[in-house]
Amino acid sequence: MALCRQTASGRLCPGLLLLLLWALGSELRPAGTATPPGAESLAELQNQTVIEPENLLLNMTADEKYNLRAYMCWANFSHWMMNVTRVQLCEWRVISRPYSNLRHCLETFAEEQNYSYPNSIAEECIVHSHRTYFLNCTQEHPMFLDPPEDVLLALIFAPICLIPFLVTLVVWRSKDGKMQS
Questions:
Q1: Cβ of 135: how many Cβ atoms within 10 Å?
Q2: What is the pTM assigned to this prediction?
Q3: Which residues of 143-159 are buried (b: 16+ CB within 10 A; e: fewer)?
Q4: At CB < 8 A and 24+ separation, what contacts does 43-46 make?
Q5: What does the pLDDT look like over 102-139, one tens digit per residue?
Q6: Tens digit of pLDDT for each residue in 40-68?
Q7: Dihedral angle, C-alpha 61, 63, 65, 66, nearest 10 °
Q8: Which has the closest alpha carbon to 106: 68, 135, 78, 79?
Q9: N- to C-terminal Cα distance for the chain?
Q10: Could you give the dihedral angle defined by the CA atoms of residues 122, 126, 128 and 134, in that order, rounded to the nearest 10 degrees?
């Protein structure tokens, strides 16, 4: 049985919403049922619970709404990335559109919920995308690292020690009194 049929309004269907809420750990049961958490299957939840998506979203807090929307952004990004081969994962021209869509989606929903962007939820999605898809990408140009501490200290103290010597030399040469032309 399909969880969702195509809706003309573009809204989430109840089956998909229930799947998302179940995945996020919410417990949805009609009043009077006392089934322990985790004992119900998704099909049982869908058959037992009749919730209109509009009412469900009205009862959610702003954090829950943003979490749900971030999950939807992630699901959309994952769907786009399924079409990318392993070889193409590190090519920016291939992944720029899905990656930019993920960022734009997270940013737009954050703005709608009056969240700052970037926020911890968006950061978690971005980091998760890097760990999942881009972990093995290497840079064409090697990253430059800081020099070892002993070399760094020598480069710092050499000019510092030269300054008093140069100042002494300038003062000593200026005491001669002869004007040079």
A1: 8
A2: 0.48
A3: eeeeeeeeeeeeeeeee
A4: 43/1, 45/18, 46/3, 46/14, 46/15, 46/18
A5: 999 999 988 888 888 888 889 999 999 999 988 888 76
A6: 554 554 455 455 555 666 777 878 888 88
A7: 160
A8: 68
A9: 98
A10: 170
Inter-helix orientation angle 14-23/62-81, to 10°: 100
What type of residue sits at position 93? R
